[in-house]
Amino acid sequence: MSFTLYKRLFQYLKPYLPKVILAIIFSIIVGAISTSPIPIIQKTFDKIFVEKDLFMLKVIPLALIGLFLVKGVLTYAQNLIIFGISWELVVSVREKLFAHIHRLPFLFFENNETGHLISRIINDVNIMQSTITRLMKEFMQNSAMAIGLLFWLFYLKWKWAIIAIIVFPFMAFPISNISRKLKKFSHKGQEILANVNSTILESFSGIKIVRAFGLESVEREKFERHSGNFLKVMKKNVKYVEIVSPLLEFLGVVSAGVVLWYGGNQVLTGEVSQGTFIAFVVAMFMLYGPVRLLFKIYANIQISLAGAERVFAILDQEEERMDEGKQELVQFKDQIEFQKVSFRYPSRETMVLSDIDVTVKKSEILAIVGMSGAGKTTFVDLLFRYFNVTSGKILIDGKDIREYRLESLRRNMALVTQETFLFNDTIWNNIAFGKTDATKEEILQAAKAAHVDFFVKHMDDGYDTMIGERGVKLSGGQRQRVAIARAILRDAPILVLDEATSALDSESEKLVQDALHHLMEHRTTFVIAHRLSTIQNADRIIVLEKGQIVESGTHEHLLSNSGLYQKYFEMQMFNVDEKSEDLKEISKDAI
Ligand SMILES: Nc1ncnc2c1ncn2[C@@H]1O[C@H](COP(=O)(O)OP(=O)(O)O)[C@@H](O)[C@H]1O
Ligand SMILES: [Mg+2]
Prior knowledge:
- The protein is α/β, with parallel strands linked by helices.
- The chain has two domains: 2-320, ABC transporter type 1, transmembrane domain (ABC transporter transmembrane region fold); 330-410 and 524-591, Rossmann fold.
- The protein is built from 22 helices and ten strands.
- The chain is elongated, with a radius of gyration of 36 Å.
- Bound molecules: adenosine-5'-diphosphate and magnesium ion (MG).
- Magnesium ion binds at residues 376-377, 498.
């Protein structure tokens, strides 16, 4: 399990292999130089103090300075390489994740809240970075140092060396247990952090409702619950992480005590030189540093792997991707057919749409009416292939939409919904993003057609006005008109209006309505609306109830039918404007 993870992490390092090898070589040299004080100490004592060798008195300090100059330079170079690579990796993994998530099917977002995704892209990738730097830098360097010191220990006095290190192998078992625990905590901790993220995101993006309903304390409690959980996990985590060093140190010192007593005796009897003894003791204490760190890396590496695991879990959702068709839908030209279309959300038992049969010819308007929850939005969502139909088929120009490349399918469609989605950018850019290669003229024309021009004139910065997060600095009607301008600019042959005017006051509604009429010219339109003026112009109206088409026909036809449509009409479910007053008269006459 861990092995495959390492292998995968290694894949990311492959493009940097020459640099990585260089860094590893540097690490090893740095580690080795770190052990150089040992022979130096031995020589200082035995040659300078005991034998009074004056030549050595000059050579040794110079050697020391030279070696540590090399060490300093290499350490710097090594850090430049390793951190350089690891930051490049972080950025590229983030970009990869972001792009990948954008390719995942719609359903993915129902199971993964935005806050959780932020946590993956930010925190988990950071953790992944620390794995790589740890492995390349600390692990290599400390291993080199530990091996170097072990070499000196055995070189100086192998019997003492055995006593000094005998405890370490016994530590491996408890520490691998701790390591496994840490991995579990890490998963838990990251999960909780993701919840914290989600709470922050929801709480502040819904600040208006939170304040209006006085939900601050509820939100605060939710936040405190998550952060309290985080605290608990972290405290447990600390208990395990921090036990490693003191435990090792203590056991190390016990064996050091034995060496001191035993070796000290041998120095007194003249069996071993003072220099050797002191060099040995220094090496022994120096060894605990890298060994402790290596054990700590060993324990912590599981945490890092947990981060990588979560990142890979998302990248592995590849197989869930919608298999795209190969055909290009260059330009929609004939008709759209729903053939016995049924649909069920995977999370639900019951069908949301059943046996929908309807054909819309080019340039026709299909109106969809029905109570809320009837399945209207789902109906048009299927056209965009946010979801695949559960059974039946949707055909465009005679071909199943699953045969088209998604991008080419969606290029033929424009969408205006009730909740307009605007970016925190200028009005100009919010319109421009309807068509990436639009000219200035085109954008201005679209803005005029949607009556955006009308309110932009009164703004200090005109089209360069920043509109705030999700367009909060605009009124509902203004937002809607920007969204319509964007759809006009897109100039797609198929237009979907999902309650595009329901949230508007009557004045802006008229403007929006007018803008919509501009938009609908020469287009095939699916319109979900509460507005009679839009509906009555439709070539066909379908009435949905519980996911089924219960009536269909023209406005006049349906009114004379005295069915559900007529009931809605009488209940004044449709907003009525002046133009339709006449029609109401007419229809009354008709009845
Ligand atoms: N993402 C979803 N997951 C599960 N059920 C959903 C989802 N979206 C909508 N539904 C359910 O499908 C039904 C139809 O929803 P929708 O098409 O939005 O209705 P309408 O637009 O007519 O108001 C509703 O009962 C709703 O609860
Ligand atoms: Mg809806």
